[in-house]
Design goal:
By secondary structure, the chain is mainly alpha-helical. The chain is 42% helix and 7% strand. The chain is built from eleven helices and five strands. A hairpin with a 2-residue loop joins strand 3 and strand 4. The two termini are 21 Å apart.
Length: 231
């Protein structure tokens, strides 16, 4: 279950801060915290202007936010707050260390990022990838109920029943590309990718087997994306 903590104007989203009673204690990272100003900035996103700005992104992410290569993520229908925060991370040379993206976002202002994020959030999410095989019941169980013995919370607890995303910057993962999903999960498990102040995803993915990572990737690719609110 997601927990919300308001501390001196900063909104911290941690999902979860404890996993079946096991506390995840990691030092907070300032760049991952949400401020009231950032939340207002995301809400100010201009879809029309974002569409114009996103033309320079279409070479990789497609005109409709569907990645043109297997390793490029789908952005269509993604929660605006999540996209905005990731762009911030690329520019800050912090939690997202990817030189090509850093160069591309280096000249974007906060308003530019909010507008681009609003544009992608307005697009129709990826359709179900029915080329992916049906997954075993064990994978569906991880999504719906988790695995208490291993301290694994259900994926749906944070990402929604259809992978539609959750509070503030918990991303939509339904309809995400198989290869990108697997790579991202592997980076989390190696603590090379951060998403929240307590490294919740890093701690959870270390408890998953390789075949489970692939199974979850196939599950969400086959599921397709659920339409999200843009704010």
């Amino acid at each position: 279950m997601a927990a919300r903590h308001v501390i001196t104007g900063l909104l911290i989203i941690v999902c979860p801060i404890s996993v079946y009673g096991e506390s995840v204690k990691m030092p907070p990272k300032a760049s991952l915290l949400w401020t009231a100003d950032q939340q207002r900035m995301v809400k100010s996103g201009d879809v029309s202007r974002g569409k114009e700005l996103a033309e320079r992104c279409s070479h990789c992410h497609g005109e409709n936010g569907i990645g043109v290569e297997p390793e490029v993520p789908n952005l269509a229908g993604q929660l605006a707050a999540y996209t905005y925060k990731q762009l911030q991370h690329y520019k800050a040379k912090g939690p997202r260390n990817h030189n090509p993206m850093r160069r591309r976002v280096s000249r974007l202002s906060d308003q530019d990022m909010a507008d681009v994020s609003a544009w992608y959030a307005s697009l129709e999410p990826a359709a179900p990838d029915l080329s992916q095989p049906s997954v075993p019941e064990e994978i569906a169980k991880l999504v719906k109920t988790g695995d208490q013995k291993r301290g694994l919370i259900a994926c749906a607890a944070c990402h929604g029943e259809r992978g539609e995303g959750g509070p503030i910057d918990t991303p939509a993962i339904g309809g995400q590309k198989l290869e990108y999903f697997i790579t991202t999960m592997q980076l989390f498990s190696q603590f090379e990718r951060a998403r929240d102040v307590y490294n919740s995803m890093c701690n959870l993915t270390t408890r998953l087997k390789d075949e489970e990572l692939r199974g979850l990737a196939s599950y969400y690719a086959r599921l397709g994306g659920g339409k999200l609110a843009t704010k």
